[in-house]
Structure formats: structure tokens, C-alpha cells
Amino acid sequence: MDSSMISMVIEQLLSFQTIIALVIGVVGGIAIGALPGLSTTMAIALLVPITFSMEPVAGLVMLTAIYTSATYGGSIASILLHTPGTPAAAATALDGYQLTLKGKASTAIGVATFSSMVGGFISGIALLFLAPPLAQLSLMFSAPEYLLLAIFGLTIIGSLSSGSMLKGLASGAIGLLIGTIGIDIITGFPRFTFGSMSLESGIALIPALIGLFSLSQVFILIENQVKSGKKVNAKQASGKFFPSKSIIKRITPTVLRSSGLGVIVGIMPGAGGDVGSWVGYNEAKRFSKRKEEFGKGSVEGVAGSESANNAVTGGAIIPMMTLGIPGSSATAVLLGGLMIQGLVPGSELFTTNGHLSYAIIIGFIIANILMGIVGFIGAKYFIKVLDVPQNLIIAIIITICMVGSYAINNSIFDIWVMVFFGIFGYFLRKAGFSTAPIILGMILGPIAERSLGQALVMSQDNFFVYLLSRPISVIFIVLILLTILTPLIMKLIRNRKKEAVS
Amino acid sequence: MKKKSLFFVTVILLVSMLVLAACGSSSDDNAAENFPDKPVTLIVPWSAGGGTDTGARLLQPYLEDELGVSVTVVNKTGAGGWIGWNDLANADPDGYTIGLANSPHIITGYINPTLNRDKDLDDFIGLGMHVVDPDTVSIRPDEDRFTNLDELIEYAQNNEVTVTSTGEGTDEHLVILNLNKEMGTNFVPVHFDGAAESRSSVLGGHVDVLVANLGEILSLYHDGDIEVLGVAAQERSSFMEDVPTLAEQGVEVYQESSRGFLAPAGTDPEVVQILEEALEKAINNEEHIEKMTELGFGVRYETGEDYMSILKDDEQVVIDLKELLGWE
Amino acid sequence: MNKSIHQDVYSGIVLLLITAIFYWQTFDLPDRAALFPEFILYVLMFFSVAIIVNGIRKTKKERDGEEVAQTDDEERVTLSKIKMPLLMLSILVVYLIVLDIVGFFVTTSLLIALILYILKVRKPLTYILTIVGVGLFIYVLFVYFLNVNLPQGILF
Fold first, then answer.
1. Count of CB atoms within 10 A of residue B119's CB?
2. C43 touches B at CB < 8 Å
3. Chain A residue with the nearest C-alpha to that of B113
4. Do the Cβ atoms of A86 and A70 come closer than 8 Å?
5. Do residue B200 and residue A201 have CB atoms under 8 angstroms apart?
6. How far apart are the first and last CA of chain A?
7. Which residues of B touch A48 (CB under 8 A)?
8. How many helices, marked H, and strands, marked E, lie in chain B?
9. In this structure, is the dihedral angle defined by the CA atoms of residues A74, A79, A83 and A88, taken in order, positive or negative?
10. Could you give the CA distance from residue B81 to residue A403 in angstroms, rounded to a whole number?
11. With the C-alpha atoms ordered B160, B162, B167, B171, is the resulting torsion angle positive or negative?
12. From the CA atom positions of chain C, what is the Rg in Å?
């Protein structure tokens, strides 16, 4: 980038249309993300036609701003209402909502905002400076690595089940089973559809998520409403939104680590923000000095998933811009927005059209900062949700759950799915099962099965030799073994010590 | 107190119902002569943001201009497109509900016996074809086992070669099956979730051959990231003039994925004609073609009747492959 | 003397039943498609049995008067506790049946009113504001901006 290009980039960014687009993208994105059922992909898809008539930079800055802001917005409802706005915010609900119950909603929102902003910013920087090498790295991932990533992801279940390990694992298996419903991509055969055409494409993730998290929560609230149980309000939740120095010090390693992981997950075409946030959450727990706080309101948990899912956004844009291969479903739509402006992905994008591309990337970085600012200013209004009487909240959440599940596919069947998972989730929670492993199983199961089938074909003869011949696969195998064996070895050592003492 | 509030609720609800009913009233007795006099619904059987959806939304304003009423794009996703097509077949045949169809997906959907579909092409009337996207066969530029189509075919006759596909019975899969059938090759399909994973798997050297629609590999082709060996179409594509067709190189395999418009069977012929004419003008609008070309979509208009016969031909191709698909 | 059986036993049995139903469904599948689900079902079967065994152990413990640890939302399910959630569920089911016939906005207004009534809201103004507010919000965002086609029945 020479000086003439820098001035062109600045000129592009300072145009009135770009600034307006940036603000609309950030504010609109946060709102869309906060509402369950309004997915990031859908918002971008519906706005792409509007950007046709805009200047390329303004249009694309708006779309990327929506992408990152909606990912952040998902955390707000997750934290305040246990209603993840996007699948990528499901992991945030685990600790975020616990913090709200403890009257620390402002801390949780503050940490989420800070982590999302930093995660998005880091991914933007990676996009600006490291795009070509990271794009090459993304090509090293294929079916065997996705298989191992999915297995690695499933080991998270062990750390999610704080209460009963047995029930946590069972929940995970239920999620995997649900993930097999629908037409099998390898054989084209419908499985467990019970003759219903609506089930052929499987159980849609978002209605199931809304049911398991939001509606089941509503059922629990209703039950408590009668006996007028615990209630949180914003007054006791007030406090500074910007995280205090001690909190920042505590979460910084987590935020940096999860941001890096998020970028890596982002560049993989087969995995997006929903996988990224769980990986970020799990690694936050693994490296934490206060593991016992996880699941009971840990700021590190919120920071881990939120920085990772926003870091996925910039990561996912990398292969899209350099190779034309979108790293997530939302970027697949963004790609259309890029091409409709006559911007063809590839080397040309960074040379001939460099002034536009760099303006878009820098616009994306600015969008992340603006998102943080809007988040901190808006936090005291978001938190007003807790002031609304609970019976009104219940009525409103139920309605939004209904519309949200419907809007994803314009399908009433999906509302039935949501209601079914609502009552199912309610009874599971009553019986001491956690619902998070189900979602994890639903996300990772299909990835695991599909990549296993692909990897078996690709390996041609010896599957295990094939896996060991691939460097990234080896890294994953080591990680998986470490995850499973470390707790066992630690236990052994502890027992030895006890014996030695006695 | 309790009674009073109940009364209030009832009043509120009655009033809101009346107001809403007044807003929503519409005349349903419309004859063909004043068609169309209310919004037309266009069913897109894939989610917002996909190729079919993008094409539909690009055409929407031009179609609205021609019809003089608004056109609402409704995404009805699921069951490989068949949720949408089923809804279309069951819709009132009054011309106010039309849909976009993808071939060969719509055909493989009902020919696959395990899916028990009770509908087929006879449940629809063709209104016009919109887009044709031929399949292409490509390899990495640094591939040393084979550098052209002949060498690839020869190599694959003696060795197993992995090829990308996007699922059982998709156009990519049909290309592979047809190659194996015509040339006696040992191409093995690796089914990916979509073209993004297919492309990165070939670029990264994990799968040997990339079979994908032309529109999906255009940017890789321009950047020289892949070498396109052939296009599975009757003629060369204007997007890559220098790439020969497979047939030119002695491989008689043709496979395109096409998109076009359908109405439910039983629609009034006069209404069909109005829709056909509007679609023809909208699709052939130069501004529309220009925008589609930028996205790598090859616009090709065909009349409703011709579109239907193209679909019938596609049907025959799938029927001929039934045995290889294990669908007998 | 506590005679009740720990609810884990019931949970395990229900899980085992679900596993059985799904397992029965795999009989129609070609081997290739059944492989992965069958593997999961075996795992699930193992967990179900383990949960039942654990439940029996917990039952014994409880009968001996020992405390059994519980997690977050875990609670003994009694009819009085699940009465309200079940009532809400039946309302939602009726709502979904009526939705397609009558149309979204009317049915949803009724639903909101009914929920508020059950939750003991009595101020008429609250009803009006909630129904109009939620309705407008959904209309502007989903219908106007995002072009979502909400179910339209005989009434709007």
C-alpha cells in the first residue's frame, strides 16, 4: 500500500455515504443480532439488493458492519434473558445469564462488549495484514481436519456438564442423534423422518436452540412466577459498564487466545461462529485459574466465547476475499454483495481494486470499534429490559420466539419444532440434564459424520496412516489426547500423592 | 374487577380484529382479463442469499415493472427444494403463486424412490427459463499425474481418482456417474456440503478433481488457481471462451444446472401467457443481464414450453442413471 | 420413611424408550446410512442404563436418609410445579393450530392477552400497550423491513 493508495482509501472512508452506512450497519446489526431467529445471514441476504445502488465501499462496509455487530448483538439477549440471539451466542448464555442472576448484568454486558470489540478488531487486523498466509492455511483444512475438529469440539461436553458428567454426555449423545435426522448427504437416504417431508432437511438449528434455551427458560420463569421467586432488576445490576482494570487484567489472556482461535475457525469453510464460540469458551476454561466459576457466572467464560465469535467474522472474510471461498454462511452471502459491485475475489482485489478492498477492510475494523462504543453507550438502555415486569417479559419472549422460529424458513413447522424443544428442554432441565451439550451435538454431529465419510473416501486405503500423514491432523490428535488424558493422569498423580501421604 | 378487565380484553380484541380485517380485505374473484391485480408471490425453494435467491431478487424489480404489481420473494426451504415445490404444486392455480425450479434437483427429488414424492413434472407448467450454469471439470495447475482431459481419463481408467460433488443425485454427482459410464473411469465422488468446501479441498490438494458449476469457479479460473479442462455443455461458455467443451474432446457428457419459472398445473392459459410474456421481457432486460453476468450467472431465456422440454430431457438423463444411483 | 423412587430412574427409562424407537427406525435404512446413528444409539443405550442404575443407587441413598446432590435447575417434578408450564404448552399448541387458519396478527394478539391474563396482569392499559407495541414492532421489523411473509389467514 503506497501513499497514493492510502489517500484514496481515506477518501473512500470519509464519504458521507460510507459513514452513514457504517452507523446504520452497526446499530441495525446489534438490533438484529439481539433478536432470536433473525440470523446474521438472513439480514445480510436481504440487504444485499439494497447495496446494489450504493457506492461499493459504503455498501460493503454496511454489510460487514452488520456481520460483526449482529454477532455481538446476540450476546445481549443471551446474557440478560437466557435467549441467545444467534447460535454463536449460545455459549455466552451459560455464564452470562448466571452473572445476571447474581445482579452482575452490567459486568457481563461490559465484558461481552469489550471482548467482542477486541475479537473483531484483532480479526480485522489479521484480515488487513495476514490475509494471504491465512488463506493458504485455510486450504490445509479438509475433511480429516473437520472430523478431528468436531471430535475435539465434542470433548467440550465433558467440561460443560458441571453437575452430572453422565447426564452431560447423554445430552451430547441426544444432540448427535438429533443431528442425524434428515436426508443423509452421502447416501441420499432419509433417516428418522417418520414420513415427514419437513424433517428431510433435518431439525433446523435455530428453532431448536430457541426452544432449548429461551422457551424452556420461559417455562421455568412461569413456574417461578406463581411462587414469585427470584427476580433481578437493573437497579441492583447497575454499575460501571466498562470493565474495571482488574477484570480487564483477568480476561486479557482469554480474549487474546480466543480471538486467535476464532480467526483460525473463521478461515475454515466448514465451521463458523457457532463452532468458534464453543472452542473459545472451552479453551478459556482449560487455561483458567478459576475453573470452578465456569457455569456459575465466570467473566472469563463470557470473554472466551464472545471474543472468539467476533474473531470468526474477520477470519471468515479472509478466504472469501482472497480465494472467493466463503468461510461461513454469512460470508457466502457477502460474496454475492462483493461480486455484484464488479469486485471479483482474488489477487486483483488487492491490486487493481486495492483502494476499494483496503477501504472495505479498514471500514470493517472501524465498524468493530464503533460497535464497542455503541455497545458501551447502549448498555444502560439494554439493561432496562430487566426493569420490565417479568410477566410482560414472558409474553414478549414467547411472541418473539414464535416469529423468530418462523422467519428463518417461513415455516410453521419450525415453530412446532421450537415448541417441542421448549418443553423437551424444560423437562431435561428439571431432570438435571443440561441443554448446551444438545446444541453442541447438533452442530458438530453432522460435521463429524460427513467428514468421516469424506475422509474415508479420500484416504483410499489406510485411514489412520492417512490421518498421521497430515500435519494439522496430527496436531488435533495430540490436542484431543491431551484433553481426554490430562484429567485422568492428574487424578492418578493425586491418588499417588494421597497414598504416599498416608 | 376481574369481570371488568375481561370485558376490556374482549373489546380490545374485537376492535383489533375488525381493524385488521378491514386492512386485509381483498377481492378474490379475479378473471384472467384483469390479471394481475394483486401482488404475485414467487416461491424460492432455497434460503436467502443462495444463488437461486440472488437471481430471483435481481430479477424481481424488472418483473415488477413488467407485471405492474409487486412481486414478493418467499423463501421456502427444506427437503432439497421440495418443500417449496410441494407448496407450489398445491397452491391455487390462479397465477398469483409462481416458483423457481432447479434442475436436476427437482427431478432427482421425485425419481429417488426412497423419498416417496407424489408429485412430478406434470404437476407444473413451465413459464420460462432464467439461468443455465454448466458443470465444469478442473484440476490444480501443479497437478503432475495428468495435465489435460485425455490424460485424466486415461489415468482414471487405471486408478481411483477422487472428485468433488455436493451430494447424492446432484448435477456434480451425475457428471461423475456419466463419466464412469461413458469412459469406464474410476472416479469416486466425495460429497461436500457445498461448493465452498469443494473448491478449497481441491485447491488444498485433498481431492484430485473439481467438478462444479461454471459460475462457482469463475474467480479461481481468472486468477489461474485452477485449470479448467472442459465444460459439460453443448457449446463453449462466453465466460471462458478458451475452454473447450467435453464433447469437443471426445467425452460425450452434458450436464447443466438450470433455473426457470414454474406455475402449478391447471393455471388458466391466458394467465400463463401474461406471466410468460412478462418474464421474457424481464429476463431479456439488458440491465438485468448485465448484473447477472457480473455475478457469473449465464442468463438464457427459453419459452415456457421449451423450458419444459429441457426439463423432460434432464429427467431422461436421471432415469438413465437410475441403476448407477441405486434407485431402482 | 421415604418410599419414592428417584426421578433419574424414570429419566433413564424414557431415554431408553426413545433410543428403542429410533433403533427400530434404523432397520429400514441401508447399512451405509445406518452406521453412524446406530453407533450413537449404542452409546445412548449405555448412558440410559447407567442413568437408571445411578438412579436406583440414589433411591437407596435417599431411603437411607442421605442427601443426594442436585444440579442447577434439577428439581423433583411434581404435578403442581409443572401445572403452569403444561397449561402454557397447551395454549401454544392451540395457538399454532389456529395460526394458519386465522392469520398471524389476530392470533398473536389473542395469545399475548391470554398469557398476560394467566400471569395475573389486570391493568387494561398494559394489555393495549403490550399488544399494540409487540404487534407494531413485529410488523415494522419483520414485515416492513425484512419482508417476512407471516401466515395470513382469513383475517389479515
1. 17
2. no
3. A189
4. yes
5. no
6. 69
7. 49, 54, 57
8. 12, 10
9. positive
10. 22
11. negative
12. 23
Quick: pLDDT tens for B1-38: 445 555 555 555 555 555 544 444 444 444 567 888 88
Instruction: Give the Cα separation of A122 and A136 in Å (integer).
Output: 19
Q: Is the dihedral of CA B184, B217, A260, A438 positive or negative?
A: negative
Give ipTM to 2 decimals.
0.93
How is residue A152 written as a grid cell? 475435539
Q: What is the amino acid identity at position A18?
A: T
Distance from the B73 Cα atom to the nearest Cα atom in chain C, whole angstroms: 8
* Cα Rg of chain B, angstroms: 23
Q: Are A61 and A21 in contact (CB under 8 A)?
A: yes
Contact B195, B266 (CB under 8 A): no
| Subunits close to C (at least 3 CB pairs below 8 A) | A, B
C121 phi and psi, to 5 degrees?
Answer: -85, 130
> What is the distance between the alpha carbons of residues A9 and A4, in angstroms, rounded to a whole number?
9
d(CA A405, CA A83): 13
Is C123 an 8 Å CB contact of chain A? Answer: no
Smallest CA–CA distance, residue C146 to chain A, in Å, is 7
Cell 415445490: give the residue.
B85
pTM, entire model = 0.85
Cell 389486570 appears where?
C122
Name the residue among B188, B129, B196 with its Cα closest to residue B163: B188
CB A392 within 8 A of CB C130: yes
Return the C-alpha cell found at A37: 431467529
- For residue C149, the chain A residues in CB contact (below 8 A) are 410
Residue A268 binned pLDDT confidence (cut-offs 50, 70, 90): confident
Looking at residue B244, the DSSP 8-state letter turns out to be: P
Phi-psi region of A417 (alpha: psi -120 to 50; beta: other; left: phi over 0): alpha
Grid cell, residue A430, equals 428439571
Task: Compute the distance between CA of residue A375 and CA of residue A382 in angstroms, rounded to an integer.
Answer: 9
Cα–Cα distance measured from residue B217 to residue B164, given in angstroms and rounded to the nearest whole number: 13
Calpha distance A340→B58 (Å, rounded): 10
Residue A304, all three cell numbers: 472466551
- Cell numbers 424414557 correspond to C14
Q: How far apart are CA A412 and CA A480, in angstroms?
A: 40
First to last CA, chain B: 70
Beta bridge partners of B98: B42
- Nearest 5 degrees, angle CA A328-CA A330-CA A335? 90
CA–CA gap between residue A147 and residue A150 (Å, rounded)? 5
Condensed to tens digits (0 to 9), the pLDDT of residues B232-258 reads 999 999 999 999 999 999 999 999 999
**Based on the number of CB atoms within 10 Å of its own CB, is A486 exposed (0-12), middle (13-18) or buried (19 or more)?**
exposed
Give the least confident one: A223-227, A312-316, B101-105, C129-133.
A223-227
Enumerate helices (H) and strands (E) in chain C, giving the number of each. 5, 0
H-only helix segments in C26-121: 31-63, 79-102, 104-118
The Cα-based distances of C50 to A138, A160, C56 in angstroms read 41, 19, 10
Rg value, chain A, Cα: 22
Residue keyed to cell 423457481: B100
CA distance B78 to C134: 29
Residue recorded with cell 409474553: A395
Cα separation of B128 and B261, whole Å? 5
3-state secondary structure of B125: strand
Q: How far apart are CA C102 and CA C85, in angstroms?
A: 25
Residue A177 CA to its chain's centroid (Å): 22
Partner residues linked to B139 by β-bridges? B227
Q: Provide the pLDDT for residue B31.
A: 54
Does residue A256 surpass a pLDDT of 60?
yes
Closest by alpha carbon to A103, among A221, A235, A240? A235
Short-list A83, A77, A65, CA closest to A34 = A77
B199 in Cβ contact with A323 (< 8 Å): yes
